[in-house]
């Protein structure tokens, strides 16, 4: 039995705030039974408000309308920067770990305050007003963070687009959001290579009539292609004041949108609002990672993903800690990069993805053992299920069995971590390869094939959440019907995650994977249809089917079956053209690992098995026009992989 001491909670305040609860279980039950009291108390305690809210929540899981902290007003940038600057302007907010090791730059809360306000004033001078959308196409760097906060300062809605997307992918996101301004850099630098950010933006905005200005920050200073919309961001900032009155925003005004891959149709602009998102991101950041004042938090995700939003920017800054901006790759200049960085910067919490862990594991322990990792206390994983081998390696070789390893399950739509081994009583058991326990206020449930809620333990099915929580997405930008169809109509009155899960005999949750046709390549999610559409744009392609297959390092690889039109031959030239088409339409990470060009009927069920090398149990193939083609496919598969 837990003793009701301060150590019961990793957040000591919680015990003072909810004195009736003396154990993790009691507090969790309280958060579920007294939801409004739980979140309302924390919102008052943890956020700075301009006007107090009148009602904690006004939510309806049937109609998909969600409002939190109704009537309250605040500014997110004040909560992330001003509060900490007032206390100690010299505290370090950001450490920019640049591509070359040992070149890091530190930005204090005082400096971040000035940068943010200058950019906010630049945006205003270009006509950006409350509610306008601003696209940010930049890698992790202080100006990118300051740009996100600048939007929050004036009530503009940011849409950060991963700076590896192609011009077409970027343009479709800018058009969907009708962004007024794009913020970018001349070039990016990653793994010793230059990335032509500006060139991509120029190509993209040529097809985006809503864009009236492109703000260009200097990263390399190399000459790059220009356009009539260009504004030199560094020069424009110098001319502006370092003070900008924060806009007073309603809790439910939009803070940002972020596009997820969209397994069917166009990418979805998942939209989050101000207060609920900030409270949820900051509380989960503090509790899951045990991150406190003075800590150096190292989330190596790119800011173009939700993990970068919640755990590089908003969570850590709301909590006033020092957050790492990692520009490089896990293997540059060698596979010791993470560990050298941890040693040099004395990182306390590291948050990365299973694909990176698997990759580093393959390179051998010597790259880890060279470095002093004693600063580390928490090791986090996110993005896909972490296999047990990788979990043990992370725990033993990196954590020396002295760190808390947290496999965190969540989504763009959930705003923050929803299932994770912590918060729970310090020392309580952690099982390899599963996120285990719901966060406060999160009530998971598992649905069976007929849509019935499965009671008890030892059950597998569709993972849904039963109760609204403050960090939940409010809509898909411009497509509320699609929002309802995707998340609230599959199972009435519940939030459908799209993932499958097991509830084990002890009540712990394990995620089995996504229930739709999405491939997870090194943590990048791709709809199979998206890759098929891209391939289909090459003149040689009659038809294609894309499936994922197990890949040692990337988690899943992309296997494309392509049927060529008459007159085209399956040679190396066609194949390289097909790859170029995918790169142009989507991004480099979407390139198929294997392209099999054959003729025959497409039957996904069989193709998936061939790709995964599970050819013993192909099931019924008698309905195929030509069953012998399967033999042919298997033979070719063996040649290819
Ligand atoms: P789309 O919904 O358009 O396909 P996406 O799901 O790729 O986009 P994200 O929100 O970044 O975009 O990814 C969330 C998904 O990642 C989860 O639904 C789940 O499938 C997977 N995931 C994240 N964390 C974990 C984890 N710890 N264990 C297992 N799967 C995880
Ligand atoms: Mg998803």
Automatic annotation (TrEMBL):
Q: Where is the Acetyl-coenzyme A synthetase N-terminal domain?
A: 24-80
Which GO molecular-function terms appear in the entry? acetate-CoA ligase activity; AMP binding; ATP binding
Example GO CC term: the record gives: mitochondrion
What sequence ranges are listed for the domain AMP-binding enzyme C-terminal?
530-596
TM ranges: none
Q: Which reaction does it catalyse?
A: acetate + ATP + CoA = acetyl-CoA + AMP + diphosphate
Give one GO biological process term. acetyl-CoA biosynthetic process
Which InterPro entries does this chain map to? Ac_CoA_lig (IPR011904), ACAS_N (IPR032387), AMP-bd_C (IPR025110), AMP-bd_C_sf (IPR045851), AMP-binding_CS (IPR020845), AMP-dep_synth/lig_dom (IPR000873), ANL_N_sf (IPR042099)
Does the keyword ATP-binding feature in the UniProt annotation? yes
Which Enzyme Commission number(s) are on file for it? 6.2.1.1
- Domain AMP-dependent synthetase/ligase, by residue range, is 83-474
At the top of the EC hierarchy, this enzyme's class is ligase
Presence of the UniProt keyword Lyase in the record: no
Pfam families named in the record:
ACAS_N, AMP-binding, AMP-binding_C
Key words, A-Z: ATP-binding, Ligase, Nucleotide-binding
Query: What does the similarity note say?
Result: Belongs to the ATP-dependent AMP-binding enzyme family.
Q: What name has this protein been given in UniProt?
A: Acetyl-coenzyme A synthetase
């Amino acid at each position: 039995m837990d003793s009701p001491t301060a150590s019961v909670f990793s957040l000591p305040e919680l015990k003072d705030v909810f004195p009736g609860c003396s154990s993790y279980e009691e507090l969790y039950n309280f958060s579920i039974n007294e939801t409004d009291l739980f979140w309302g108390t924390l919102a008052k305690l943890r956020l700075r408000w301009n006007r107090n809210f009148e009602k904690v929540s006004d939510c309806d899981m049937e109609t998909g309308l969600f409002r939190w902290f109704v009537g309250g007003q605040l500014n997110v940038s004040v909560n992330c920067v001003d509060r900490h600057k007032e206390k100690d302007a010299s505290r370090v907010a950001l450490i920019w770990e640049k591509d070359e090791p040992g070149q890091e730059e530190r930005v204090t809360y005082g400096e971040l305050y000035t940068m943010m306000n200058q950019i906010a004033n630049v945006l205003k001078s270009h006509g950006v007003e409350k509610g306008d959308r601003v696209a940010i196409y930049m890698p992790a760097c202080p100006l990118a963070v300051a740009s996100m906060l600048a939007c929050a300062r004036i009530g503009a809605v940011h849409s950060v687009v991963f700076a590896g997307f192609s011009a077409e992918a970027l343009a479709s996101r800018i058009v969907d959001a009708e962004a007024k301004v794009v913020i970018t850099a001349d070039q990016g630098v990653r793994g010793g290579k230059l990335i032509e950010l500006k060139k991509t933006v120029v190509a993209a905005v040529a097809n985006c009539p809503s864009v009236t200005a492109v703000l260009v920050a200097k990263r390399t200073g190399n000459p790059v292609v220009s356009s009539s919309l260009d504004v030199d961001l560094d020069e424009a900032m110098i001319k502006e004041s370092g003070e900008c009155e924060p806009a007073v925003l309603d809790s439910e005004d939009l803070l940002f949108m972020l596009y997820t891959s969209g397994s069917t149709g166009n990418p979805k602009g998942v939209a989050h609002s101000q207060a609920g998102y900030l409270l949820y991101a900051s509380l989960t950041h503090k509790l899951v990672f045990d991150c406190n004042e003075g800590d150096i938090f190292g989330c190596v995700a790119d800011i173009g993903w939700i993990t970068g939003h919640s755990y590089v920017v908003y969570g850590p800054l709301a909590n006033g800690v020092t957050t790492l901006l990692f520009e490089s790759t896990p293997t540059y200049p060698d596979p010791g990069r993470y560990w050298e960085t941890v040693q040099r910067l004395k990182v306390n919490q590291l948050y990365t993805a299973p694909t990176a862990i698997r990759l580093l594991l393959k390179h051998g322990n010597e790259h880890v053992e060279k470095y002093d990792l004693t600063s580390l206390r928490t090791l986090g994983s996110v993005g896909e299920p972490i296999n047990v081998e990788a979990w043990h390696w992370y725990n033993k070789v990196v954590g020396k069995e002295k760190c808390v390893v947290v496999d965190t399950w969540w989504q763009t739509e959930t705003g923050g971590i929803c299932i994770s081994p912590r918060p729970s009583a310090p020392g309580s058991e952690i099982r390899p390869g599963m996120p285990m326990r719901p966060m406060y206020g999160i009530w998971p449930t598992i649905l069976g094939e007929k849509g019935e809620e499965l009671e008890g333990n030892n059950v597998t099915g569709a993972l849904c959440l039963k109760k609204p929580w403050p960090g939940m997405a409010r809509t898909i930008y411009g497509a509320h019907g699609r929002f309802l169809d995707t998340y609230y109509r599959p199972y009435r009155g519940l939030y459908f995650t799209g993932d499958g899960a097991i509830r084990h005999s002890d009540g712990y949750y394990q995620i089995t994977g996504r229930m739709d046709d999405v491939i997870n390549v090194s943590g990048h999610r791709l709809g199979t249809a998206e890759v098929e559409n891209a391939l289909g744009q090459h003149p040689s392609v009659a038809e294609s089917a894309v499936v994922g297959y197990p890949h040692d390092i990337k988690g899943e690889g992309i296997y494309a079956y392509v049927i060529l039109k008459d007159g085209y031959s399956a040679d190396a030239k066609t194949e390289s053209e097909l790859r170029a088409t995918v790169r142009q339409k989507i991004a480099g990470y979407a390139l198929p690992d294997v392209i099999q060009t054959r003729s025959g009927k497409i039957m996904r069920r069989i193709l998936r098995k061939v790709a995964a090398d599970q050819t013993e149990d192909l099931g019924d193939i008698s309905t195929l026009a030509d069953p012998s083609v399967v033999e042919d496919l298997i033979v070719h598969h063996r040649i290819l992989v």
